[in-house]
Automatic annotation (TrEMBL):
UniProt organism field: Copranaerobaculum intestinale
Ranges of residues in domain NADH:flavin oxidoreductase/NADH oxidase N-terminal: 2-312
Family annotation (Pfam families): Oxidored_FMN (PF00724)
Essential cofactor(s): FMN
Descriptive protein name: NADPH dehydrogenase
Listed InterPro entries: Aldolase_TIM, OxRdtase_FMN_N, YqjM-like
């Protein structure tokens, strides 16, 4: 069955084609970006269900890059000490884990300075020196991710955060190089992250902004081809972030964007968006609409969904999981 086939992406081999997308938990109670016992238990539980990989939630690369005061960071030693515990626990379960590196830009709700491509009410437009400082913050974050033994990193270029703010004509009308080439910040961050991490690098993109003057999926093949030339290994396809109009979500609503980008680029594509059933997963992979499938809400509700599926089709043995878990999962002789 295609879903449970091993797949090689970059220098990594995933045991199956199902991944856990980055999902903010907003449970860093100390407001200093340091993970706690909840985060360790949360990611360990997801890892016990044996997805192909987990992408850790958006993690700030500097003190003004947090989405909220309850979000994780990687830029100081206390933060990294707890992140190492998460990585080690996930690896102990035999699952691979990546970290999504992020700067929230003007969507920072942390109560400190809000930065963006341009001056606006309550927003400080970044100058070139400040932009380069943020590029270096991503570079250091990639280095620390490598030292912490993450299997891959993901650059967050979606959902209306800083990189997306520079990419989008909705928020970037600069008259310098960063306005002439709205992809420049993403390119610079990608270049230093690929060099520093020395492993598999993913980029998450919002392939549809749901606004007439925003970005649409047809805008992204040249961007993705440029990212491939810079050494990116895979693309995570999502949508939205800067839209003012509502998004109407329904099962598989984001899959057309993943399908289009798979057809028009050469990088492995991850698809996401209210995918919940075995039949949906099988159909997506059989049609080759994408290469990897991300299950968010599904695995939050049922972390052992994949184990139960494997057991149902006779692909789970006593050697695959701890004995106590096999007793709970296995339901037939």
């Amino acid at each position: 069955m295609k879903v449970f086939e091993k797949v090689k992406i970059g220098n990594l081999t995933f045991d199956n084609r199902i991944g856990v997308p980055p999902m903010c938990t907003y449970l860093c109670e100390t407001h200093d970006g340091v993970a706690n016992d909840f985060h360790t238990a949360h990611y360990t539980t997801l890892a016990m269900g044996q997805p192909g990989f987990i992408t850790q939630e958006a993690t700030a690369v500097n003190e003004h890059g947090h989405i909220s005061e309850n979000c994780l960071g990687i830029y100081n030693p206390r933060q990294r000490e707890m992140l190492k515990r998460i990585v080690d626990n996930v690896h102990h379960c035999g699952t691979k884990i990546g970290i999504q590196l992020n700067h929230a830009g003007f969507k920072n709700l942390f109560g400190n300075d809000r930065f963006g491509p341009m001056d606006d009410e309550g927003v400080i437009g970044l100058n070139v020196n400040q932009i380069q400082a943020i590029v270096h913050d991503f570079e250091y974050a990639a280095m620390w991710a490598r030292e912490l033994n993450y299997d891959f990193i993901e650059i967050h270029g979606a959902h209306g955060y800083l990189i997306n703010q520079f990419l989008s004509p909705l928020s970037n009308q600069r008259d310098d190089l960063y306005g002439e080439n709205r992809c420049l910040l993403l390119e610079q961050i990608t270049e230093v992250c690929v060099k520093m991490f020395e492993g598999c690098v993913s980029v998450r993109l919002s392939a549809e902004e749901y606004e007439p003057n925003g970005l649409h999926m047809q805008d992204f093949p040249p961007i993705i081809n440029r990212l491939k030339a810079l050494g990116v290994s895979m693309i995570s396809v999502s949508s939205g972030g800067l839209n003012k109009s509502p998004i109407y979500s329904y099962p598989l609503y984001q899959m057309p964007y993943a399908k289009y980008l798979k057809e028009h680029t050469d990088l492995p594509i991850m698809g996401v968006g209210l995918i919940t059933t075995e039949n949906e997963i099988e159909r997506i992979l059989e049609k080759r609409d994408c290469d990897l499938i991300l299950l968010g809400r599904k695995l939050l509700r049922d972390p052992f969904f994949l184990l139960r599926w494997r057991d149902h089709i006779g692909m789970l043995s006593k050697d695959d999981v701890p004995e106590y878990l096999y007793r709970g999962i296995h339901t037939h002789s």
